[in-house]
Design brief:
The protein is of the alpha+beta class. The chain is 38% helix and 14% strand.
């Protein structure tokens, strides 16, 4: 499937119709249903929206994504559909779109469905007892990651050119790393989470997953903007992110770090280390100043746990008749008894943590790290595993992303090659406050020499459930 920007241009030029693109998307979704990428497919609504888009295009109307099919994660409200977020319950269809969906529709996008996730976004896999499991298009025995794994699988398998995910501890970047995509976690407040005014107490933001930096930047431009009731609001960027993707970065100072935050152990897979070191050499060849240096993370974990556990408790308590699996219920209990009490302390720590960790930006413009410590996990690896063992296991697999959620700063996953087993590896570009543009321009420069958009999964012929 062509990229998001390419589809938008083809529609505007009359080379293809929205009906054709949407039908192609729906056919691909049906063909690869065994990957479990979608929790629900909105075929009838998508066809109606495509027909309307074709009428508007024929009348000469032009919008950034008019007639282009996209997908959204199942934590995002879509009018007429439920939002179970992986948890069985007495769900009712939503009567209004989330702000991100409103912006997608205002840009003309056609939403073909809602993608699979785990319960309340807790894990780096997209599996739940109530709504099935998403599989990795590169090898269906492995997970595409989580919790935006359904969105990542949909893009990697060519069901849609781009999809929206959300990221509360790496949930965009981890699936992007494990499926060979570009995934952008924007600055806190860049993209509205409304009707959630402060989703997961500032941890969670919504953002794009796509094959190319150009497509991810275009989708981020469409999503960007605040709702008046958002807890965090930002002024619009001076320059569109799509323009940043077309702008070569200045010579940057890039710190390479393999350090993890306090309290997180685990072994870094040698193949991932080698891939990140290769990317560092590539950046040096591009003329950047690259050197080893570590952020001083301090007690950043104390900013994570109260926010995350209290956020799970709040979301679960808002679901009517919720029937979560035991480890989700355990996380919520911790949130009710401890997380909510410690939340004021976590917020008071923010300025000090930003100063401490932000010192690295006195001598670096970007920090390069692995996105994950391990290659994609096997599907079902944590089936029936108790809460604490699941927590320790996933923390060891994915220790690199979450500190930037506590800080609220932007980060981008870029593909860094394939393992010997043919599984994707990701590298993470970490930026300072509100500096998405630098990360996007650097990622685009890497894409031009790495050519990752040409890589496609080869393991799509045999359906799995």
């Amino acid at each position: 499937m062509e990229g998001l920007a390419e589809q938008a241009r083809a529609l505007a030029d009359g080379q293809v119709t929205a009906k054709e693109l949407v039908e192609r998307s729906l056919e691909r979704i049906a063909e690869l249903d065994g990957l479990g990428a979608f929790r629900v497919v909105c075929a009838e609504a998508a066809r109606e929206a495509a027909a309307e888009a074709d009428r508007r295009l024929a009348d000469g109307e032009r919008l950034p994504l008019l007639g282009v099919p996209v997908a959204i994660k199942d934590d995002t409200d879509l009018a007429g559909e439920t939002t179970p977020f992986g948890v069985p319950g007495d769900h009712r269809p939503k009567t209004a779109d989330a702000e991100a969906v409103r912006r997608l529709k205002a840009a003309g996008a056609v939403i073909v469905g809602k993608t699979t996730t785990c319960e309340l976004g807790l894990w780096p896999f997209s599996e739940s007892p109530g709504f099935g499991r998403a599989r990795n298009p590169w090898n269906p025995e492995h997970t595409p990651g989580g919790s935006s794994g359904g969105s990542a699988a949909a893009v990697a398998a060519g069901m849609v050119a781009a999809a929206v995910g959300s990221d509360g501890a790496g949930s965009i970047r981890i699936p992007a790393a494990w499926t060979g995509l570009v995934g952008i976690k924007p600055q806190r407040g860049r993209v509205s989470g409304f009707p959630h005014r402060d989703p997961f107490n500032g941890l969670t933001v919504w953002g794009p997953l796509a094959r190319s930096v150009e497509d991810a930047a275009l989708l981020l431009d469409v999503l960007t903007g605040s709702h008046p009731e958002d807890a965090y609001r930002l002024d619009p960027p001076v320059t569109p992110f799509a323009e940043a993707a077309r702008t070569r970065p200045r010579r940057l100072r890039i710190a390479v770090s393999f350090k993890t935050a306090f309290g997180v152990g685990g072994r870094l897979d040698p193949q991932i280390r080698a891939a990140v070191e290769r990317m560092a050499r590539r950046l040096t060849d591009l003329g950047h100043k690259v050197f080893p240096a570590d952020p001083d993370y301090g007690l950043v974990v104390l900013g994570l746990v109260p926010r995350g556990t209290a956020g799970v408790a709040d979301w679960l308590d808002s679901l009517p008749g919720a029937r979560p699996e035991p480890r989700t219920a355990a996380e919520a209990r911790i949130g009710r008894t401890v997380g909510r009490r410690l939340l004021p302390l976590a917020r008071r720590m923010d300025p000090g943590l930003r100063r401490r960790i932000g010192r690295i930006f006195q001598y670096a413009d970007v920090v390069l790290t692995p996105t994950t410590a391990q290659l994609p996990l096997k599907v079902g690896a944590f089936d029936g595993v108790p809460y604490r063992r699941t927590q320790s296991g996933v923390a060891a697999a994915c220790p690199y992303c979450w500190p930037w959620n506590v800080l609220g700063w932007p980060a981008v996953n870029v593909p860094a090659g394939l393992s010997r087993e043919g599984l994707p590896i990701g590298a993470q570009l970490l930026g300072h406050d509100s500096d998405e543009a630098t990360l996007i321009s650097l990622a685009a420069e890497l894409e031009a020499v790495e050519g990752w958009t040409r890589r496609r999964p080869e393991a799509l012929s045999s359906p799995h459930r």
